Amino acid sequence: SQKTQARHYKTLQQLYKTKKPNKAAVTQLMDLEFQSRRLFIDSDAVKEQDRPTKILEAYPCFREVDHVLDELRRIIQPSNSRYISEMKERWENFYSKVQFYGVMKKVMKPPNTLNGGM
């Protein structure tokens, strides 16, 4: 309900008043409060140019990369808790293939002296 989600938001705000908020508690509250947060972000109540500032004011946890990645997981694959680690593994695999291709292309390039014009 909206009342419960408002309570979660208030708890989240209190957590960020401490010097070092508990990451697991923040993640759990962000999971519980996802629907109301999406409504706030998607609403027309905030001007488009002010939206990033207002979102960061309302949700200071989005200044941390881990929480941004968790939000990405909530949006793309909410039922897959391993989504971010799987995405990182796929990226490493892709990156290594791109590096290999780049090195091979450079190695396979004929030397400038063998271009037919001596």
UniProtKB/TrEMBL annotation:
Name listed for the protein in its UniProt record: Si:ch211-208g1.1
